[in-house]
Design brief:
Length: 328
């Protein structure tokens, strides 16, 4: 697995926000965390020049640098960063650095300015119109990141890929244990031709088929499937299988099993463009679930509601405290 297969902790999809920037004269800072790929239409001019899908500062005429501060949608350990300069060719920053910090609650820009920042990506060269990839070796939990560009210019997107680390004090007794924002993740699937299976675990409702998981049309006697590692072991009570927006291409049926093959939900019929909810009767804890769809098709979201085991909650608390102290 490459770090780009992990969750983008800064994405607007999981609640990320750009809380401050010292300059955004040519293009707005909020574009940095848009979940879709950057676009460009040549010779599209506004009052300030060519329109860019990214963050772009004015040309500096004195020594210094520009910066933008992002609040991650979910706290986590960062494993990789992409500074994407797509379509910025003669106006990209020649160098950049990325720092992280951890502050509780919801600090203001002034409070973040005085935070204890530590390096995630040391000052490094950038290339224009490129996804500049940097592996991160830090093991501390990060709540905010700061992108510094030297000396000025434009960046289309900042992707901050990592492992969510939930605060167990903020987890309710019953929650969606498959949710990406608390650490649920897809570990394998049969097919991802039209859409990523990771979309199944994103928060909120899908706005279109493009925000779900969709497989190609099968021409054999098999079926498609996806395997999900829960954020932590728990007892599942309710499943939501959402086929919203999938009308002529929804699966006909679906089934859920645990990691060891134990039945959680027998094969059930699905309807197109519908949020289905099913009670689960399995009493034992599970840490992995397999969703089988028959024979193929698309789904918008998968929710697996349940309660953490006592041992799982204790392990999450220990992990949170260890990462707070900077441990591995």
């Amino acid at each position: 697995m490459t770090f780009e297969e992990l969750l983008d902790l800064a994405s607007r999809n999981v609640g990320g926000s750009v809380v401050a920037a010292n300059d955004e004269f040519f293009a707005e800072r909020d574009n940095l965390i848009n979940p879709w790929a950057p676009t460009f239409t040549p010779r599209t001019f506004g009052a300030k020049g060519q329109v860019y899908d990214g963050w772009e500062t004015r040309r500096r005429r004195e020594p210094g640098h520009d910066h933008a501060v992002l609040r991650l949608g979910v706290p986590g350990v960062v494993h990789g960063v992409v500074v994407d300069t797509a379509f910025f060719t003669g106006n990209y920053p020649p160098e950049a650095a990325v720092d992280g910090c951890r502050l509780p609650g919801y600090p203001s820009p002034d409070e973040l300015a005085g935070a204890d920042w530590f390096p995630l990506v040391e000052r490094a060269a950038l290339h224009g119109d490129t996804r500049n990839r940097f592996t991160v070796g830090a093991s501390r939990v990060v709540t905010h990141v700061r992108l510094t560009i030297h000396p000025d210019g434009g960046v289309a997107r900042l992707r901050v890929y990592g492992e969510p680390v939930p605060d167990p004090e903020l987890l309710p007794d019953t929650c969606d244990l498959a949710a990406a924002e608390i650490g649920g993740r897809v570990t394998d699937c049969s097919d991802r031709f039209y859409g990523s299976p990771g979309n199944l675990l994103l928060p909120g409702l899908a706005a279109s088929m493009g925000e779900g998981w969709e497989t190609r049309r099968r021409r054999d006697h098999g079926n498609d499937w996806v395997r999900v590692r829960l954020a932590a072991p728990g007892v599942l009570r309710l499943a939501e299988l959402d086929t919203s927006h999938f009308k002529g291409n929804a699966p006909g049926w679906a089934r859920l099993t645990g990691g060891d093959g134990e039945p959680l939900l027998p094969r059930v019929r699905l309807q197109p463009d519908t949020r289905h909810r099913f009670r689960l009767a399995h009493d034992g804890p599970v840490d992995e679930v397999r969703l089988d769809i028959y024979p193929d098709g698309g789904m918008a979201r998968l929710r697996l509601y349940g309660s953490l085991t006592a041992g799982a909650r204790e392990r999450l608390a220990a992990q949170w405290a260890d990462r707070e102290a900077g441990g591995g």
